[in-house]
Amino acid sequence: MNSVLVTGGAGYIGSHTVQQLVERGDRVVVIDNLSTGFREAVRGASFVEGNVGDIELVSRVLEAHRVDAVLHFAAHTVVPESVSDPLKYYGNNTGNTRNLLACCARAGIDKFIFSSTAAVYGSTEAGVADEDTPTRPINPYGTSKLMSETMLRDWCATGAMRHVILRYFNVAGCDPLGRIGHSTPQATLLIKVACEHAVGKRPSISIYGTDYDTPDGTGVRDFIHVEDLAAAHLRALDHLRAGGDCLTLNCGYGHGYSVREVVEAVARAAGHRLNVVELPRRPGDIPKLIARSDRLREALGWEPCYDDLDLIVRTALSWEHRLAGNSFRAASVA
Ligand SMILES: NC(=O)c1ccc[n+]([C@@H]2O[C@H](COP(=O)([O-])OP(=O)(O)OC[C@H]3O[C@@H](n4cnc5c(N)ncnc54)[C@H](O)[C@@H]3O)[C@@H](O)[C@H]2O)c1
Ligand SMILES: O=c1ccn([C@@H]2O[C@H](COP(=O)(O)OP(=O)(O)O[C@H]3O[C@H](CO)[C@@H](O)[C@H](O)[C@H]3O)[C@@H](O)[C@H]2O)c(=O)[nH]1
């Protein structure tokens, strides 16, 4: 039986995808250097610790595990860090993706699913993006991903490979059964940070900017539950295995919530007030970004199961309680 290679499978989104692949019976091998991932998050799959840019190592794994498709999650993901250390991002996100593609070329692998990001769009006029919206990233993280997209399309244009590029919007929530979750240290993402405050790991939650041209003055984002996003990867894999064409697809629900609405949802889930500090805008933030995601639904037959802010927040908070060592209601959150 062939295997799927999942790079970055010990990380937040990768581990949820590995879990779904394993649960439906796919054979999976993970390569992860554990720079931000966790060995214990990889359950039921083979695990190789190493760098996805290491051509010898990756080639060995592709051959030994008879890999027929690659899901490429491994990357650095912190936007402000990409601004202060852009070469780190071009090296890991773009350079290492080039090496991985070279290994695939050598091994004759013809199916590739790539973790891209809404950050490739930058600031759009109406705060909404479909896949044909011009890509104008405003930070090196977004550019490093866009460069990888271009490289992948150019390689696929030779006929050697087919791809699905998934552009994730704001990913949040955790496995509703509490087996794995979002453990990234020094997290900066809103829902994770707000939940860390709710369980007492942080003294407050900051709202960056209350003077945007949005209904309540705070930023608006399209939050997608990690389980729905993982499910999109499985459908993308099936699409390629069935001989489907190359695709680029937004991954979001098509509607958004404001930062203030998210903070209120976390307070509701926690059952107590939060200490909210209103601060000026965070440099580099855009007011609003919502996905047009009709193409994902039409091309892959994907339908969300967790499109509910309270549910997203409850699963995230439940995991945060587990990390903090508190008792929690993991089995009942869904
Ligand atoms: N979290 C989001 O909201 C979001 C949004 C858009 C896109 N993405 C993309 O999704 C993917 C996964 O992100 P995540 O949130 O799960 O982050 P994460 O940091 O939890 O996962 C990344 C994983 O890749 C591993 N890794 C990094 N560089 C590696 C290398 N050179 N070799 C081997 N392993 C390496 C890390 O150890 C980690 O396990 C990334 O490509 C990211 O850019 C995430
Ligand atoms: O403590 C916080 C954290 C965030 N925010 C605000 O919450 C919104 C969302 O911010 P965040 O959760 O950091 O996500 P984004 O900046 O939208 O970017 C994320 O979502 C992108 C996809 O849209 C990914 O590509 C990026 O990797 C990921 O950082 C923004 O308005 C922030 O200003 C706060 O007010 N307080």
TrEMBL record:
CDD domains: UDP_G4E_1_SDR_e. GO terms for biological process: galactose catabolic process via UDP-galactose, Leloir pathway. GO terms for molecular function: UDP-glucose 4-epimerase activity. Residues 4-252 form the NAD-dependent epimerase/dehydratase domain. This is UDP-glucose 4-epimerase. It comes from the Bacteria. It comes from Luteibacter yeojuensis. Its EC number is 5.1.3.2. Homodimer. InterPro entries: Epimerase_deHydtase, NAD(P)-bd_dom_sf, UDP_G4E. The gene is galE. It catalyses: UDP-alpha-D-glucose = UDP-alpha-D-galactose.
